[in-house]
Every structure is written in C-alpha cells, then in structure tokens.
C-alpha cells in the first residue's frame, strides 16, 4: 500500500467537514454535492440506499426536516480518519468514526449513534468526492 500524499489527506478532512456542516445546517444540495453524481449512501439506519444526486438531496432534506420536527439539533462529529490509497491514483479509501450527537432545546446533549464510515472516494475536477459510503453501526 503506497503512502497517501498529505494534500489528499487534508482534502479528505475538509470534505468531511463540509459534509457535516452542510447536513447539520439543512444544506441538502451542498451535502449531496460532496458525492459523485452516481454516489451511494448505504446505512442500516435507513430502509434503502440513496443513490444519485436527487436521492441524496432528498435524503438530506428528510434528515433535516426530522430534526426540525423533533426540536433537537443534531451534529455529525467525524473523527479518527484513516485515509488509504485506492486501486488507482484517482481513488482513495477512508475509514472514520461518526458520532451523531443531539441536543434538545434547553436540554443536555446525548449520543444518538456511533458508527463507522467506510468510504470509496474518487478524484473529480471539483476535488475528492464520495463514490460510495457504507455506514456500519456499533452494536
């Protein structure tokens, strides 16, 4: 396995930051744009995968609407990121922990989920994008 250039590692961290801030603030199209046009989001927390920009945008809209209905502010906290080389120079694999923390109005924060992100990333003209994200829930 070859060493991943530090510029690419930093770009992946920036990508995860953009994703977290976008979905937490209700910017569904911005969140979906961090995936490739045919990108996939697969999670056991949801009945079926979201595939493609339109489905990813709709997923993020539903997620944010659910938060608004519950009166709880959710935050995606990505940590312990490991970026590995992919099968080509324009592909990477990233593993990370994702905590989803919720804070009700006037309440205390609580951990909703602790998951592992397993991402296939590809280099595009706009930078690194998620081609496929598989979420694994902790038991």
Automatic annotation (TrEMBL):
Residues 6-134 form the SnoaL-like domain. InterPro entries: NTF2-like_dom_sf, SnoaL-like. This is Nuclear transport factor 2 family protein. It holds the Pfam family SnoaL_4.
């Amino acid at each position: 396995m070859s060493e991943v250039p530090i510029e690419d590692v930093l770009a992946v961290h920036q990508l995860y930051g953009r994703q977290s801030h976008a979905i937490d603030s209700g910017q569904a199209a911005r969140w979906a744009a961090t995936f490739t046009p045919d990108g996939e989001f697969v999670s056991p927390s949801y009945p079926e995968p979201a595939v493609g920009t339109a489905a990813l945008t709709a997923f993020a809209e539903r997620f944010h609407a659910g938060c608004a209905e519950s009166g709880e502010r959710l935050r995606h906290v990505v940590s312990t990121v490991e970026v590995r080389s992919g099968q080509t120079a324009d592909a990477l694999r990233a593993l990370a922990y994702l905590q989803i923390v919720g804070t009700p109005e006037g309440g205390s924060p609580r951990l909703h989920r602790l998951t592992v992100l397993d991402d296939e990333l590809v280099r595009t003209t706009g930078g690194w994008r998620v081609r496929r994200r598989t979420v694994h829930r902790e038991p």
